Amino acid sequence: MQIDLPIVWAAIIGLGVFIYVVLDGFDLGIGLLFPFFEEKGDRQVMLNTVAPVWDGNETFLVLGGAGLYGAFPVVYSTLLPANYLPLILMVVGLIFRGAAFELRAKATRTQHLWDLAFIGGSALAAFCQGVVLGSLLQGIKIVDGRFVGGAFDWLSGFSVFCGLGVLVTYAALGCGWLILKTDGELQRKMCLLMTPLVSVLLGAIAIVSLWTVLGLPSVAYRWFGSGNLGWFIPVPILVIACVWGIFKSVRLQHDVLPFILTLALCFLGYSGLIISIWPNIIPPSLTIWEASSSHSSQLFALVGTVIILPIIIVYNVMQYRVFRGKVREGDAGYHH
Length: 336
Description:
Blueprint: H1 5-33, H2 40-50, H3 54-57, H4 59-71, H5 73-82, H6 84-104, H7 111-138, E1 142-143, E2 146-147, H8 157-181, H9 184-215, H10 217-225, H11 229-232, H12 234-251, H13 257-277, E3 280-282, E4 286-287, H14 295-322
Antiparallel strand pairs: 1-2, 3-4
Helix pairs in contact: 1-4, 1-7, 1-8, 4-5, 4-14, 6-7, 7-8, 8-9, 8-13, 9-10, 9-12, 12-13
């Protein structure tokens, strides 16, 4: 039996990117929620909820990047040149956020500056990820497997809006995470913030969906012209069900449900994206088979991944298990 390796690799990279978006999404989201909480104690608790896990969350970004390089080198050589500026700014944002995490714990006089670096770094990284997503959706000019567009092709109204959409998504994820991990007054404030955040997120999802269907004929055909609408229609229905569930669970002051349903919302948005572009890995025309490296390269990389990926997943699960439970003010802070 011949295994279709490009599909296997597309699934691995897709999974890696989704896990990254979820895990790094909520800790970037905490940076985005910082401006709403001025009190030192609140901010410290917010940071302590992710202090043990945040650097492990970024492992999946490395997995996605390395997987692309090994399995789909054409994507690497087209997506990167098309998005150099937002990708470099994203890395700068992640560096600032990482440095702020480490240094604000030790700083006294300059702590407010590191708070600003944490907020700015989180916002920059999240916004740039959305811009890259937007530029991917609107299509990248490729001739003979090479990028032939301009240095600022990624910049459009649509990609900027996608950037703002990712900011709201991550803020909602962060809010759900903090409802799960905190209690008392801070949790109550988070519950108040969750409803407007998710309302804005629903609006953003609706606008992006409409914009892609109206602006990109290939996406419109994929959803409405290919005869598969019956299979795809559960996605928007489930989105509305999740949003309703979040509103209800926040009102009933559930600890776990708001976060779980926000994760489900992210998964539905992600599956909608995959439905829109599949089997293209770079719209409008580059399919996963055309972008693939040789069979032997993919097989070689797959052997390594099959060994490494379970280890990464197991240690990630373990760190969340070890540090489960509520985080309260006065708990042991962040020490390194």
